[in-house]
Amino acid sequence: MQKPSKPLRRGQKKLDDLNLMREFYAEELRAVANIQSEAVVRAFAKVPRERFLGPGPWQIVHLWHDLRPSKRYRTTPDADPRHVYHNVLVAIDPERGLNNGEPAFLALLIDALGLQEGEHVVHVGCGTGYYTAILAEVVGPNGNVTAVEIDSELAAHARGNVNYLPQVMIIEGEGGEYDPGPCDAILINAGATHPRPLWLDVLRLGGRLLLPLTVFKDDNSPQWGQVLKVTRRANGFVAHFISEVGIFPCHGARDPELNERLKEAVRAGDSKSVQSLRREQHEPDNSCWLHSTDFCLSKLAASE
């Protein structure tokens, strides 16, 4: 006669329930963000988001709510981690309006990077490290993630949070100045008016850069714009916009004059015409969507 199975211990059942919740969460992100990479889905199902948020209860915000800091947050009823496995922002520092970003949006960006196992990816503006850990799971133990965070307190938290992932290195510093060496992909998790030259320089052939280009407003609200994807080819850089974005500014990657030019370019409403990023010096003409002395987002196709 077969012996009856032993009932699960309460702690084990709670863990199994939480693992199942993460799987549902990852599948929901697959649907919402149209994720194509199975590795990205698996990463969201595996990484414990609550590890990167501090102890609960947590303050969360739904995206359709008023985004002013005084209006946005509601507190979860308890510290059950299941509350954070939804497509919601979770406060890291509510006084500054600083949050662990929208999972579906970051899933879309990570998926757009087209990461492969064993690649080197750079994450600028890593916060407390949750999406850095997602990136690490995607590239696997043979890959590398270099994460850069300018806020010393956040960098310290991130370093402690990802200490179980040997392929991750957390750097406290400015993302446009720290040289990570040759890399396959770069995710900038803050709003800029221009790409820093270093980000383009370190991309390997076929390397991808995702950069939110945003317009500054004179208040403490997120900056709005679009995410630019840049891919390095043998004879230049292919570039196109992939998504709208609202995000906080990137220190060291904002220029007042370029902010005004970007504002004018956005008003023109033809961002879909952008096909390449040019670095060679040239006079501005009708093919330039956003022109500066260091780079130009061009309506011309990249050289083959």
Characterization of this structure:
This protein has 304 residues and is an alpha/beta fold. The protein has a single domain, classed as Rossmann fold. The chain is built from 8 helices and 14 strands. A hairpin with a 4-residue loop joins strand 13 and strand 14. Helix 1 packs across helix 4 and helix 2 crosses helix 5. The longest helix has 24 residues, at 10-33. The relative contact order is 0.10.
In short:
With 304 residues, this protein is of the alpha/beta class. The chain is built from 8 helices and 14 strands.
Overall mean pLDDT stands at 90
**How would a crystallographer describe the biggest sheet?**
10 strands, mixed
Q: Give the low-pLDDT segments.
A: none
Content of β-strand: 25-35%
Measured between the Cα atoms of the first and last residue, the distance is: 72 Å
Number of discrete domains: 1
Q: What structural class do the secondary elements suggest?
A: alpha/beta
From N to C, what is the helix and strand string? HHEHEEEHEHEHEEHEEEHEEE
Question: CATH class, please?
Answer: Alpha Beta
Number of strands: 14
The backbone outline, from C-alpha atoms, is globular
